[in-house]
Write a structure and sequence with these properties.
alpha+beta, single chain, 13 helices, elongated
Length: 378
């Protein structure tokens, strides 16, 4: 929650990561900006022994003697000031002590336990700040090796947000550059390419075959587009799986439908093993190998569809979006050895989820069928 000081809304620092030594640069920059907003940063940049500087930073026109500690600075401001009143000096000393305490508390609250135990006995915020700078902020070979190692060890994973990981990689690159080490942008891009997660391996190989070298920003733009494409493919796959889950598969007609009808029973049983058949105009019988029946569930306006089928029969004239009367004398050979005439052919539009519409072409109009829609392949 943001805090208010002197009419200013200050950022919330309760979620600032604790200092553990490895994150000193970012940690110190965020806190110093916060201290500037509080207008207490002068405590970190002004020596406690310089009474004149302390008083001038706070009161504006104070000069004085020197002291060795914060308490000494307060006493010097209170008793050895020239060119300012005693009241102003006391106010300046009190403000310095208060601001020093404010920074001291913020520093301790944003350290891990081991650092907290070490610094808790130190009362000067400036001494704490300078100690941290000398320990973790030095420009030495160890620091450079550390940031380079973190950069080289970076690896993306499939179970994390791809763009969050890209942001993390950019921060690692920025840390390397901040140490004064030069690195061309093509190298930054190519290393990121090698760090793609396994799910992105095909796209990585695709980018490797490009003749043009990409900048890091161009690579990130390509990744955003690919991420959107993968999300769309995932939604499409879920839609298809949802349709398939409602399929009612059948390899033939119900075996008990014609039970008890005399001599025709044996012939029907033979026919059922063959499945549905379609009779072409020239009299050839073509076997329909795979039959999927899309049956109505509750009302006659809802359809369940096998999207893999490419031969469709409909017994209802109403759902046809386009319709043409049949003139070539086609027949459908039924499971009970009967043939029924095809009266027409046309297109049916089926409404799916997500406002999708599926078009079925060359649907045969066969009123004698007992199902609303039969789809299959032969």
């Amino acid at each position: 929650m943001a805090s208010v000081r002197s009419g200013k809304v200050l950022p919330d620092r309760s979620k600032l990561e604790s200092l553990d030594g490895s994150n000193y640069h970012r940690w110190s920059q965020k806190l110093f900006i916060f201290f500037e907003q509080l207008e207490v940063d002068y405590v970190l940049t002004t020596a406690a022994a310089d009474v004149a500087a302390v008083a001038e930073a706070v009161a504006g026109n104070v000069a004085g003697a020197v002291a060795g500690t914060v308490a000494g600075a307060a006493r010097a401001v209170a008793g050895a000031v020239t060119g300012a009143t005693t009241t102003t000096a006391v106010a300046a000393a009190d403000k310095f002590k208060k601001d020093n305490k404010t920074i001291h508390e913020h520093l301790l609250n944003h350290m891990n336990n081991s650092l907290f135990d070490f610094f808790v006995t130190k009362k000067s915020a400036k001494i704490m700040w300078d100690t941290l700078e000398s320990r973790y902020g030095g420009d030495d070979a160890g620091r450079k090796k550390y940031v380079v190692g973190k950069w080289l060890q970076f690896q993306m994973a499939d179970d994390k947000s791809i763009m969050d990981q890209v942001h993390e990689y950019k921060n690692l690159v920025a840390n390397v550059l901040s140490e004064g080490m030069k690195m061309c942008e093509i190298l930054q891009t190519n290393l990121l390419l090698e760090k793609f997660p396994p799910f992105w391996s095909d796209y990585r190989n695709h980018l490797k075959h490009k003749k043009k070298d990409l900048t890091l920003q161009e690579m990130i733009s390509h990744m955003r587009i690919e991420k959107a494409n993968k999300q769309n493919d995932k939604l499409s796959s879920q839609l298809v799986n949802s349709v398939k889950a409602n399929l009612i598969e059948s390899s033939g007609v119900n075996k008990d439908r014609f039970k008890g009808k005399g001599k025709q029973v044996a012939q029907e049983r033979v026919q059922k093993n063959k499945g549905f058949q379609f009779k072409s105009p020239d009299g050839r019988i073509e076997k329909i190998k795979d039959i999927v029946e899309a049956n109505l569930v509750e009302n006659k306006s809802d359809w369940v569809l096998d999207t893999r089928a490419y031969r469709h029969f409909c017994s209802n004239r109403n759902p046809f979006h386009e319709f043409h009367d049949s003139t070539d004398g086609e027949f459908v050979f039924m499971g009970n050895s009967a043939t029924v005439e095809v009266l027409g052919k046309g297109k049916i539009l089926l409404k799916l989820t997500f406002d999708k519409t599926l078009s079925l072409s060359d649907v045969l109009y066969v009123p004698s069928l007992r199902r609303n829609l039969i789809s299959g392949s032969y």
